[in-house]
């Protein structure tokens, strides 16, 4: 019988409690201990030790660790884990700035360790289906990617604004589903809820092939909305990531005989199809992928370098909002995808750690 991977968790807050739930049930993994200086406010760490800090957590002979603390603390904990030889799954955003994100990526690379960032939307069934259909050419020439992500302010967020906390989802998803980088961004932000950081942003962008992107993100709306729409020559695909639904709106093939209406419509309404797709919890998919990567399997994790590119885009958004002009995201060096054999842990018996 294979020995389960020994996992640790740092942070037992609003997000950490969900990581604890998944880790406690994940096949092939044993959650052995958690760390949080505030204890376990949500009673998420049932029957495992809860220690105060990362140094005490390392005494539990971890095979990997999940980091679910405020963004400002990612660097200190990430560097400690890299120095200790512990692979890490770090919540998004990876870091509060590009320089720190790059430094974390370099640290884990230098140690030969697998590390990933929790861009959970990449595991949303609706977005995975959208990406696959775009790759198959379902829309023909792609014209636009647009997203809407709005809802009430989440009390869990205290150290970053809406750009780093929420818009990073949309910036990452846009480049991931299309396979193209953002090359230009223009944005406007406002702060209306009494916080120093921005709580609403509107972003207009351009991908490397000229595809237009647009993103509406805020913490000010009582309407919770999570929608990604791709529009192309053949129609549009709309992903509702709250419910995991993907709908195709086809351009109609019937000719419009009413000349006056044809002038204004451009395309006609065709068939509407809502696809039946398997719906699995995105966070579970994220953990399964990281577990499999630790075990040396080919798994779709979000690398630290990929996450750093998203940080670069978020910084460009804030630069544009400050200057009133457009900004080009700095493109971090993204190494080739590494093979499992490149990582020290892939050839190490986890039980020996």
UniProtKB/TrEMBL annotation:
InterPro entries in UniProt: Gfo/Idh/MocA-like_OxRdtase_N, Gfo/Idh/MocA_Oxidoreductases, GFO_IDH_MocA-like_dom, NAD(P)-bd_dom_sf
One annotated GO molecular function: nucleotide binding
Region (Disordered): 323-353
The GFO/IDH/MocA-like oxidoreductase domain, residue ranges: 128-236
All copies of domain Gfo/Idh/MocA-like oxidoreductase N-terminal, residue ranges: 6-119
Name by which UniProt lists this protein: Predicted dehydrogenase
Organism of derivation: Asanoa hainanensis
């Amino acid at each position: 019988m294979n020995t389960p991977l020994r996992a640790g968790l740092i942070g037992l807050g609003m997000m950490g409690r969900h990581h604890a739930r998944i880790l406690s049930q994940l096949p092939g993994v044993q959650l052995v201990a958690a760390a949080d200086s505030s204890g376990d406010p949500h009673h998420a760490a049932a029957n495992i030790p809860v220690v105060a800090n990362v140094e005490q957590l390392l005494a539990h002979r971890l095979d990997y660790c999940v980091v679910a603390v405020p963004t400002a603390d990612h660097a200190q904990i990430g560097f400690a884990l890299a120095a200790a030889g512990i692979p890490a799954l770090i919540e998004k955003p990876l870091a509060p700035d590009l320089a720190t994100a790059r430094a974390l990526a370099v640290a884990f690379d230098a140690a030969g360790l697998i590390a990933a960032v929790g861009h959970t939307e990449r595991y949303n069934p609706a977005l995975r289906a959208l990406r696959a259909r775009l790759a198959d050419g379902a829309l023909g020439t792609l014209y636009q990617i647009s997203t809407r992500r709005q809802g009430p302010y989440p009390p869990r967020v205290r150290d970053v604004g809406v750009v780093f906390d929420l818009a990073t989802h949309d910036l990452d998803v846009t480049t991931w589903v299309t396979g193209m980088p953002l090359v230009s961004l223009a944005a406007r932000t406002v702060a209306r809820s009494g916080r120093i950081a921005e709580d609403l942003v509107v972003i207009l962008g351009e991908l490397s092939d000229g595809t237009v992107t647009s993103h509406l993100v805020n913490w000010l709306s009582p309407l919770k909305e999570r929608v990604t729409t791709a529009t192309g020559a053949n129609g549009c695909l709309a992903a509702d990531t709250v419910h995991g639904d993907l709908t195709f709106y086809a351009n109609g093939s019937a000719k419009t005989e009413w000349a006056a209406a044809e002038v204004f419509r451009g395309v006609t309404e065709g068939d509407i199809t809502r696809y039946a797709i398997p719906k699995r919890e995105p966070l579970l998919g994220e953990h399964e992928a990281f577990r499999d990567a630790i075990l040396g399997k080919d798994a779709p994790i979000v690398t630290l370098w990929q996450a750093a590119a998203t940080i670069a885009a978020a910084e460009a958004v804030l630069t544009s909002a400050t200057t009133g002009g457009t900004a080009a995201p700095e493109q971090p060096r993204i190494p080739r995808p590494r093979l499992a054999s490149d990582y020290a842990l892939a050839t190490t018996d986890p039980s020996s750690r």
